[in-house]
Amino acid sequence: MRTDIEIAQAATLQPIVPLAVRRLGVPEGSLSPYGRYKAKLSLEQIEKLQGRPDGHLVLVTAITPTPPGEGKTTTTVGLGDALNHIGQNAIICLREPSLGPCFGMKGGAAGGGLAQIVPMEDINLHFTGDFHAIALANNLLAALIDNHVHHGNALGLDVRRIVWRRVVDMNDRALREITVALGGPGNGYPREDGFDIVVASEVMAILCLATSLADLKERLGRIVVGYTSSKLPITARQLKADGAMAALLKDALAPNLVQTLEGNPAFVHGGPFANIAHGCNSLIATQTALKLADYVVTEAGFGADLGAEKFIDIKCRQSGLRPGCAVIVATVRALRHHGGALQGLEALQEGLANLRRHVANVRLHYGLPAIVSINRFDGDTPEEIAMIERECAALEVPCVLASHWAEGGAGAAELAREVVKACASGAARMQLLYEDELPLDEKIAAVARKIYHAESVDWEPKARAQLGELQALGFGGLPVCIAKTQYSFSSDAKLLAAPIGHALRVRELRLNAGAGFVTAICGDIMTMPGLPKVPAAERIDVDAHGRISGLF
Amino acid sequence: MRTDIEIAQAATLQPIVPLAVRRLGVPEGSLSPYGRYKAKLSLEQIEKLQGRPDGHLVLVTAITPTPPGEGKTTTTVGLGDALNHIGQNAIICLREPSLGPCFGMKGGAAGGGLAQIVPMEDINLHFTGDFHAIALANNLLAALIDNHVHHGNALGLDVRRIVWRRVVDMNDRALREITVALGGPGNGYPREDGFDIVVASEVMAILCLATSLADLKERLGRIVVGYTSSKLPITARQLKADGAMAALLKDALAPNLVQTLEGNPAFVHGGPFANIAHGCNSLIATQTALKLADYVVTEAGFGADLGAEKFIDIKCRQSGLRPGCAVIVATVRALRHHGGALQGLEALQEGLANLRRHVANVRLHYGLPAIVSINRFDGDTPEEIAMIERECAALEVPCVLASHWAEGGAGAAELAREVVKACASGAARMQLLYEDELPLDEKIAAVARKIYHAESVDWEPKARAQLGELQALGFGGLPVCIAKTQYSFSSDAKLLAAPIGHALRVRELRLNAGAGFVTAICGDIMTMPGLPKVPAAERIDVDAHGRISGLF
ipTM of this model? Predict the structure, then answer.
């Protein structure tokens, strides 16, 4: 069987500029090529599209995932191809993969099998340099902070209260906790610091929520980098960092266009971490795609409790986006896992509780028509498939078997038809989970109660103190971004299926004043991953002709 | 008067792909566009050029510089334009500027006035992402080192003897000396570490000396990252890092093509630090340009004692390149500075000793015909110019007054004609300063004696010990890369003009086994600059239409 990279390398790609001109109807001059198969669409052209009506937005989400993942990206690509296959005009919107994890364990994030976006090596490595620009904008701000303190600290930053960390696009555990500015007066004031992976940077979240270059700069200026000794916030604007940061990001803000293996257009742009941040591709890409196509298929990180909730309560709240339906990806394997066993119909029956709750949440709390898509694997038995189908019939939710991985867009044609039906029905009544006016703790409680079915929210003392401070500073009106394990509805990764009676434990609040949300950290959150004992980097290679191997 | 960025932004650029097809005669398919005005020439196409004869190589070097710089890059661009202006076919080869210093004090490195390469904002900011790729390859190796130690340290690396540092393209003094891997067993083994600016990375030097992707990978594998407790070297190859590093660099190795304000082709590729490394643009760009043009104009960092010496003893030694002549850039202002005063003919007369020594070195020790080019400034008086011209006449060295800054290529037409004459004369007999077989200390002594006119070389005990170790490990056959102040022939920045009787103090040796040289650190060398009290970043901005201001 061919690997993903072998399939991708064997594909014949179309030059992206003529493809975009033909399929999106944008002028050639509005496209900036990066090599032959990647391009950015100009912000100028995007402004010109403003008057147009929007297409239908389709959100691909999933049941509570297991470590190998349930194929959300693959389904997003397959569904996009399928919509085009059945004669609709569809664009896919995905996140850009983070380079760091490529060298660790994780595969790429460009789909799989016959449902991939290409050129996959480029997309998984440097792509168009957006993440590099984000990393530098982040690190410029960090350098300006320490430089400000070094040269007299006119703003009175408390070096113990600097919250802005540096970033690198690499899994590098040695950088999680460091001390900087050692070596004497010439090197500044020593302090504790640390690096995050670039997808955890607030600059990434900002780029993904900004509506224009002006909005981007405005948001960058609002970043709170630290506090004075009397706990007053100091912003990037006070450090005069916003202009230079925006200058570094001006090209990165323009969305990237690539193609699927079937030659359909895909915007791949931005990639905020799905735990610490909101986990969706850029708003500017999604909004642009909606102006250019009848259907836009996008995904949100992790299961519907995390990804879809943030998609709605952060991205849709800030932008006014309104999805027409949600596809919930499930696999037989993962449902058995939630039922507590690797094999057997009984385990599957137990595990269906997880699917049931996600379907109910999507319909009841998010107000969206749901479609269950079973991402087919070779080992799935007819009895297992039938059991899921019966469950869905009982729930009165459409359920389709999708085999885009093996068959490409044709394998997801039925899913595409259900999506068209759901969008055409006009049944979507998207709801936000809570009002802006609610204090932060009540917002968190609303998500915990409605979506996680938690019995209570437990606040650790540190988080409780931060809550009071953030409310007092006037940040209580922001939405919350809950960072918790993706492996359970609860904050305990071991509670599978559909746990009840649990408590959500809030350890820490982190202000993202520029991105416009407050992250509530519930459980252990890794903002800098590590490499495994035998990192993928050891097998990655390039031959004398530039052909990459071992990437996946 | 218009600033450099205003001139650059007002220019009408030609689309780079048709320009390259027309001017270089390469097929369109061999060019990978990055936006409309930047492109990379494929390594495949470069291989196809191998059989062709080489054009003439012209090295632009300078007298001992003063802090504002003497206009070496500007002269390189102006001379390239001038050669084309007088009907020759010329290509310029320059280094890529480092992004970090843009936010500090330094202007860009894209020339100035009417002698610039464009698009200047792109070239000075992210350009085609080469430096980002280099930074990540460097940092991947760093992550693999700490990861190896964390997971059992099978190779027995001594954490006190890890010499590989991390890099970032930012002036960030707080990262010069840090401790990493704090926070407990999950984060690895604590140790002292530090960041350099990306241009100081050995990966940068390697990329700039590699002849092919295979050679690049081979060199990456040879990098010595540290030593065991018995002082045996551990290489990147032993960590299996070379393949993944090369994969990250495969696009970066292809040279970048841009244009001058006059629409002439320029390769801008690679940018190793001129103190810690050899300070020339990539070998692959220079070699490719020689296949595509009759004249290739390139520069080497700092004055002729540093830049030209390394250009010859490292780049030419490793590659077989042979320049046809050298242009020595001088300014009236700098020569007065060497004479010890800001004004007056007496100071100029004194300062001419500096020019005299550089001319002698270039002709006698490097074996190249020299041409003195006076980079004209508005305040220069006719008497001052006449004094330099008289001096040059006495030395029997051609001397021309060049005003490309104000007039573009036409302003350097006489310089171009002198260059053509010198190359056509066939007088060049390029010599290496020392043989490979000489031990490292004798190589350093040869440079110190012949070029710097030093009386002796003083070895600090640490450097002396390193000398013994490197010789014993078999690295004695490498050329040396002397890192010292650029402001004097000596290692003391205050000794101006043409000092004699001084001692070169060697503080430390650093092995660059992959790049293929040993750096001898003489005096204080900064591998990570800092930002000034009011960094340029504070005035850099971008408007709502993406127009950058304040960059210079």
Answer: 0.96
